[in-house]
Amino acid sequence: MPELITTKDALTGQVIKESNDALEKLIDTYVDNNLALDIPILVSRPGQKTISERSGERLVSRTYNFTYDNYFYGTKASEITSASQCSLIRGTNF
Question: In this structure, are residues 69 and 47 in contact, taking their beta carbons and an 8 Å threshold?
């Protein structure tokens, strides 16, 4: 009789695990296809700075154009492909 209970417990555990895996896969698929959205992040932005100097009697202005590249915890924003890369806590990466 104990063997029957052990077999029944093992079978029940297997059925519960398989049911849980199937439900988890169904939920993941639904979220990926219907609820998940790309997260907009600032990748870069253009900038412009004008510096004016007095050169003798003349006022000289120079304009400098530059691009500010955004980074998240050391990763360039244009290289980010997953929301987990925007988090400081990422397992054993540190």
Answer: no
